[in-house]
Every structure is written in C-alpha cells, then in structure tokens.
C-alpha cells in the first residue's frame, strides 16, 4: 500500500554484511533493519551484535527487528519503542551514564514518557 518516494528509494543500497565483523566503516544510519537474522545466534553473540549496531545508529535513530527477536533480557543498548512491536531506539539512559550527549529530539521523547 505504501511506496517510498523514488528520490529516497534511489539512496538505498543493498550489501552483504557479516554481523560478526566490525562494520564501523559504513558510518551511522537513521534506521537499521535487522529482521529475522538474530534468531540464528546465541544470546552472547546477539549482545555483541547489539553493541555494534548501537554504534551504527544515530542517537535519535531506530532499529527494526523481526517478530521473533528482541533486545529485552539480552542488552541495554536499545529500548523498545512504546507500543511499536519490533521497533527499538538507542537507550538514552545508558548514553547519559556513559557521558555521551543525547540530541534534543531524543531528550524530548524521553521526557514525554
């Protein structure tokens, strides 16, 4: 039912990526789709992958997981987005504990909770 604007769609790149290796060279993203792949890893490996992913998503960005996947009980790198199953955002509380700055947009979302 939905289609992305052709100009935006033209910016999308598809590449193979090994989640077990460093991918910092790719930079940061507003949205990361990591659907239906983490189910194949053990909990410890998932936690390491989440640590890599949180560094690859903008502080006010999002991560999308598949229906059978979650960060809950595995990592505090991301927090579930309220009432949006499979949608996660970087954990602002964790970022503040580590001394990182949190963008105003994310602070506003956290304050609204």
Radius of gyration: 15 Å
Q: Give the topology string: H per helix, E per strand.
A: HEHEEEHH
Mean pLDDT comes to 84
Second rung of CATH, namely the architecture = 3-Layer(aba) Sandwich
Q: N- to C-terminal separation?
A: 31 Å
Uncertain segments: 100-113
Write out the strand line-up for the largest beta sheet, numbering strands in chain order: 1-2-4-3
Q: CATH topology, anyone?
A: Rossmann fold
Name of the CATH homologous superfamily: Vaccinia Virus protein VP39
The secondary-structure class comes to alpha+beta
The residue fraction in helices comes out at: 25-40%
Report the major sheet: 4 strands, mixed
Number of strands: 4
Structural shape: globular
Q: What fraction strand?
A: 15-25%
- Multimerization state: single chain
Number of helices: 4
Return the CATH class: Alpha Beta
SSE diagram, text form:
Blueprint lengths: L5 H4 L19 E6 L8 H14 E9 L12 E3 L6 E4 L1 H6 L6 H9 L1
Parallel strand pairs: 1-2
Antiparallel strand pairs: 2-4, 3-4
Description of the molecule:
This protein is of the alpha+beta class and 113 residues long. The protein has one domain: Rossmann fold, CATH 3.40.50. A four-stranded mixed sheet has the order 1-2-4-3. The longest helix is centred in the middle third of the chain and has 14 residues.
């Amino acid at each position: 039912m939905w289609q992305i604007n052709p100009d935006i769609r033209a910016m999308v790149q598809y590449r193979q990526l090994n989640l077990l290796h460093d991918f910092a060279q790719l930079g940061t993203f507003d949205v990361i789709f990591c659907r239906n792949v983490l189910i194949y890893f053990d909990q410890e490996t998932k936690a390491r992958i989440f640590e890599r992913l949180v560094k690859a998503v903008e502080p006010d960005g999002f991560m999308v997981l598949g229906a059978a996947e979650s960060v809950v009980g595995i990592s505090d790198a991301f927090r579930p987005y309220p009432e949006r199953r499979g949608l996660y955002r970087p954990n602002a509380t964790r970022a503040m504990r580590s001394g990182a700055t949190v963008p105003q947009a994310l602070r506003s979302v956290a304050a609204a909770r």
